[in-house]
Write a structure and sequence with these properties.
Layout lengths: L1 H37 L2 H14 L3 H13 L3 H8 L9 H13 L3 H14 L3 H13 L3 H14 L5 E4 L6 E4 H16 L5 H14 L4 H15 L5
Antiparallel strand pairs: 1-2
Helix pairs in contact: 1-2, 2-3, 3-4, 3-5, 4-5, 5-6, 6-7, 7-8, 7-9, 8-9, 9-10, 10-11
C-alpha cells in the first residue's frame, strides 16, 4: 500500500512539474513577444534567457548572443556562445565570435572566424574585414590578396560605415577597399610607395568626398612626404 501511495505522489509531482513548466514556457513566450513589440531589448534578452533555461535551444542561444553583440555587449556575447572554433557552429555563432573578438581588439582571434565565414560565403564585405585585420597583424601579403578579391567582386550599391568621427558616415565599399589598398601599398614600402599610396587615397576621396578617414590618412602621408629629411 505504501509503495502504491509513493508512486501516486511521485506521478502527481511529475504532472505538476510538467504543468508548471508548460505554463512558464507559455508565459515567457508571451513576454518575449510583448518585449519585442515594444522594442525593449533588455526585456527580449531576459525572456530568451528564461526560455533557454526551460527549453534549451542552440538556435535561441545563437540569437541571444547576436542580440548581445548588436548592443555592443561583446563579452556577454562570447560568454553565451564561447570563443572556440567548432565545426558545428552555425553561421550566426561564427559571425558573433568574429564581431565580438574584433570589437575587443583581438584581431588574430577574430581573423579565424572571419575566414570561416569567407569559406562558406565569399564576398566583398568579408574581404574588406579580413584585409583590415590582416593589415593590423602585419600580414601584408594576405591583406593585399583580400583587397584584390574585394575590388574584383564589389558591387556599386555596396556600402561601408565608419564611426571614427563624431558623426558616423557611409562610403562606397569600393572606396573603402581602395583606402585599404593605399594603406597596404604604403606598408609594403613606406619610403618608395608613398606617392602611390597618396594617389590611391585621392581615388578613394574622389569616389566619396565625405571619406574623412581617407582624407586624414592622405594629409598624414603628405605631411610625412614634405617633412624635411634628417641629415
Amino acid at each position: 500500500m505504501k509503495k502504491i501511495l509513493c508512486l501516486v505522489v511521485i506521478m502527481a509531482s511529475m504532472s505538476l512539474t510538467a504543468q508548471t513548466k508548460t505554463e512558464l514556457l507559455k508565459h515567457f513566450k508571451s513576454y518575449y513577444e510583448q518585449m519585442k513589440s515594444q522594442g525593449d531589448v533588455q526585456g527580449v534578452i531576459n525572456a530568451m534567457t528564461h526560455l533557454n533555461i526551460l527549453e534549451p535551444s542552440q538556435k535561441r542561444t545563437d540569437t541571444l548572443a547576436y542580440i548581445y553583440v548588436s548592443e555592443g555587449r561583446n563579452l556577454e556575447a562570447l560568454n553565451t556562445v564561447g570563443i572556440d572554433n567548432n565545426p558545428t557552429d552555425s553561421n550566426i555563432s561564427t559571425e558573433v565570435k568574429a564581431l565580438a573578438l574584433k570589437a575587443l581588439n583581438q584581431p588574430q582571434r577574430a581573423l579565424v572566424f572571419y575566414e570561416e565565414l569567407f569559406k562558406k560565403s565569399p564576398n566583398a564585405y568579408l574581404a574588406y574585414e579580413i584585409a583590415d585585420l590582416k593589415t593590423i597583424v602585419q600580414d601584408i601579403a594576405g591583406a593585399k590578396a583580400s583587397v584584390d578579391y574585394g575590388l574584383a567582386n564589389v558591387k556599386p550599391d555596396m556600402k561601408k560605415a565608419y564611426y571614427e568621427s563624431q558623426q558616423p558616415y557611409e562610403v562606397s565599399l569600393k572606396g573603402a577597399l581602395t583606402y585599404l589598398k593605399a594603406l597596404i601599398v604604403f606598408n609594403m614600402n613606406q619610403n618608395d610607395n608613398i606617392d602611390q599610396a597618396i594617389t590611391l587615397l585621392d581615388e578613394a576621396i574622389a569616389m566619396d568626398a565625405n571619406f574623412n578617414l581617407a582624407q586624414i590618412s592622405k594629409d598624414a602621408l603628405v605631411a610625412r612626404k614634405e617633412a624635411p629629411k634628417k641629415e
